[in-house]
What does this fold into?
Amino acid sequence: MIRETLVRELDHDPRFQWRGGSVTRIENLSDIIFALALGMIVSSGARPETFEQLTAHLATIVPISAAFAVLFMIWNAHYVFFRRYGVADGWIVFLNCLLLLLVLFTAYPLRFIFDSFFGYIWGMTTQDWDFMREANLTFETSGTIMGYFCVGYALIFLVISQMYAYALRKTDLLGLSPIEEAMTRQSVWYFRAQIMIIVTVGLLALFTPVRAFAGALMFFFWPAAYLIAWLVPLPDEKDGAVPGGSQQMVD
It folds into this structure.
């Protein structure tokens, strides 16, 4: 009874039976690539050599944290997929390799985007526009930068949505319960909703006067999650609950 309570209250994924066994080599490689991308985000600046440079370096915690959050969101979707489904056939290996390539390719642009956003806020607050001048950033080029970000983000979540959609097509083979099937369907549509929103952001940033301010539309990621949960409701747990939580408890 105590174990069931712990699983229900503290488990990462209490309504889903994790089919991924021991960590595979493809997951190990993926974690290495994600760690490398995180290192690229954190260490993309020059080593501080003066007090002023050190102070400026410490201020970069804001854009680094924002870029880290985006990368962690991608990593978490990847992590949950392999833990839930344990699928690693040829198609998933191909999609995973494509995802890792996109993650590495977008690491530096991701840091640059949030550095630029931070530099703009800093300039508006202090009237110090040195970073913006040094980076040759203008209101017009900010829209192009946002477009770069949207392309990378959309491609990454297109690949992730295809991975989840593939698992959904293997429902019978994987033995997914009704709740697990509905949760997988929710994930697929949530990732697709993110793609539609981010493509809209990119088009507005590139082709309208709002430019980078179109990024405010990403706020709709959260309402989209609630909308999809309403449109794709989970069945009653008695019709497909996973007994004992997502992981088998070992005596």
User: Anything to note?
Assistant: The two ends are 13 Å apart (CA to CA).
